[in-house]
């Protein structure tokens, strides 16, 4: 029988259904046979994530055994590579080994260990598990270094209960290293710790103050201008410089007096930061200050910065 060109061909509904069923069964058979090819291979969760890669080409991917081996070896490069490749590897037995890396002297190792662990709900976030152990270490471990490392981990876990723990440590831990680490953790958690950040700006330790000033601009909704202005009288020029930069980032005219004071600072880096921030305020009161800096400051960098700031007013 010849079919005319462009003629419509009708297919019986039952015939069409049988064809569709046959295609589906063929596809299922192919997937099933492909899945069997990887049975028995020790690739853990990677088989699901990298299922389109042949088994003999997954040598660069991490299995549970490789994670435990890398953690025990304590070689930074091996740890970073193995944990990064093993992001989706399902290995409950690996959790204690990786948890020990939270207290490794290398900050990058501690960071990636927390990054890998926070992707494990089971075995990390639960009564008596890794997260609670970390909070307990921050609160009461007799070693200040371990408390500081625990504060780092609390920040990297990005979990809400860590805010209270970091806040308490930032306010009251007797060791400045722990207070500074806890302030940084609050920055990672995006919270001022109910006044802990402002208190840290008035801390007796320079490292704590620097940590507080540097992360203050990253916390949405936080703007304690008075605390930053008080740092214009700080004895450390790095603190004064960072305070000037912070006030400029806030663009609050309440910070004008502090910036005007720092525009006459003995340190040229502080004057430079103050000039830049005065331009950011768009306050006409800054014109005579910036004009004087642009014409008379002994530092060419400050003169140029003041000239640019004047154009922004």
Write a concise synopsis of the structure shown.
By secondary structure, the chain is an all-alpha fold.
Query: Can you summarize the main beta sheet?
Result: none
In DSSP terms, counting alpha (H) and pi (I) runs of 4 or more, how many helices? 18
The name of the CATH superfamily of the largest domain reads: Leucine-rich Repeat Variant
The end-to-end span amounts to 87 Å
Radius of gyration: 30 Å
Strand content: under 5%
- In N-to-C order, the SSE pattern is HHHHHHHHHHHHHHHHHH
Number of strands: 0
Structural class: mainly alpha
What is the arithmetic mean of pLDDT?
86
Q: State the domain count.
A: 3
The parts where pLDDT drops under 50 for at least 5 residues are 1-44
The share of residues in helices is: 55-70%
Name given to the CATH architecture of the largest domain: Alpha Horseshoe
CATH class assignment of the largest domain: Mainly Alpha
Shape label: elongated
| CATH-defined topology of the largest domain | Leucine-rich Repeat Variant
Overview of the molecule:
This protein has 313 residues and is mainly α. Helix content is 63%, strand content 0%. It has helices at 13-37, 46-49, 64-73, 76-85, 94-99, 107-117, 130-140, 144-157, 162-172, 176-189, 196-201, 206-216, 225-230, 237-250, 256-262, 268-281, 287-296, 300-312.
């Amino acid at each position: 029988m010849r079919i005319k060109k462009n003629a419509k061909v009708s297919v019986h509904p039952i015939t069409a259904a049988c064809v569709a069923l046959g295609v589906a069964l063929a596809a299922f058979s192919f997937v099933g046979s492909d899945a069997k090819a990887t049975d028995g291979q020790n690739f853990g969760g990677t088989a699901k994530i990298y299922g389109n890669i042949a088994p003999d080409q997954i040598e660069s991917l991490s299995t549970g055994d490789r994670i435990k081996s890398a953690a025990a070896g304590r070689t930074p490069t091996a740890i970073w590579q193995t944990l990064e490749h093993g992001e989706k590897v399902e290995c409950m037995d690996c959790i204690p080994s990786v948890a020990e890396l939270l207290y490794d002297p290398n900050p990058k190792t501690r960071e990636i260990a927390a990054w890998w662990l926070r992707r494990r709900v089971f075995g990390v976030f639960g009564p008596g598990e890794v997260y609670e152990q970390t909070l307990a270490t921050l609160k009461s471990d007799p070693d200040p270094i371990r408390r500081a490392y625990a504060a780092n981990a609390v920040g990297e876990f990005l979990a809400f209960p860590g805010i209270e723990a970091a806040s308490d440590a930032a306010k009251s831990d007797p060791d400045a290293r722990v207070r500074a680490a806890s302030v940084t953790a609050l920055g990672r958690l995006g919270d001022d710790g109910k006044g802990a950040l402002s208190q840290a700006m008035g801390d007796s330790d320079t490292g704590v103050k620097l940590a507080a000033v540097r992360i203050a601009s990253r916390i949405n909704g936080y703007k304690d201008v008075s605390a930053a202005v008080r740092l214009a009288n700080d004895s450390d020029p790095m603190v004064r410089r960072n305070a000037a930069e912070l006030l400029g980032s806030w663009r609050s005219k309440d910070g004008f007096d502090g910036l005007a004071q720092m525009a006459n600072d003995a340190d040229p880096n502080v004057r430079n930061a103050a000039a830049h921030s005065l331009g950011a305020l768009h306050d006409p009161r800054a014109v005579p200050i910036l004009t004087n800096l642009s014409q008379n400051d002994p530092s060419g960098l400050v003169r140029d910065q003041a000239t640019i700031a004047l154009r922004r007013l």
